[in-house]
Structure formats: structure tokens, C-alpha cells
Amino acid sequence: MKAFITAIVALVILAAGMNFALDNAGFSAAEQTSSDRNVRLGD
């Protein structure tokens, strides 16, 4: 049971840390799915 609790805590810490790291690296969902490069704004 102790190993299970340790694994859950490690998983939560790892997931939160990677979420923070990827957001700061520019891999957030908002930055990956929105772009103004493919939009024509006039001629």
C-alpha cells in the first residue's frame, strides 16, 4: 500500500511539473491550435 501511495504522489508531482514546463516552453493547447499565419487579412 505504501508503494501505491508513493506512486500516486509521484504521478501527481510529475504531471503538474510537466504541465508547467510545457506551458512555459510554448506547447500549450492554445498556442498549438491557434495561428494567424494561415489567415488572409486582406490583399
Automatic annotation (TrEMBL):
Domain of life of the source: Bacteria
**Entry keywords, A to Z:** Signal
Write the signal peptide boundaries: 1-21
State what protein this is by name: Entericidin EcnA/B family protein
